[in-house]
User: What shape does this take?
Amino acid sequence: MVTTALAIGAATWGVVMALSPILQIRRMVRRRSSRDVSIGYFSVLLFGFLLWFAYGISIDNWALVVPNLVAFLIGSVTVLVAWHYRRTEGREPPG
Assistant: This one.
């Protein structure tokens, strides 16, 4: 019973943590810049999320699968947004 409650609590908090890079995405969009974001850092995290996701699948543990899948997806969007702004930084807006 306690183990199940801990798994649910950890998985729930894992999803909250996985969603936290949305704050970074919001900041990049507002500033129209990704200078403050380390793409290398997020790349290391993405690899770790994939490893934990694969491990969770292999042991059929959804408390590992769900948060790490969400973290991987949000982290991927963060990297894509950062790359977008890296490509466009330094260009003058049209008009």
User: Anything to note?
Assistant: The chain has one domain: 2-88. The domain at 2-88 is CATH 1.20.1280.290 (Monooxygenase). Helices lie at 2-19, 21-31, 39-58, 62-88. The CA atoms of residues 47 and 72 lie 8 Å apart.
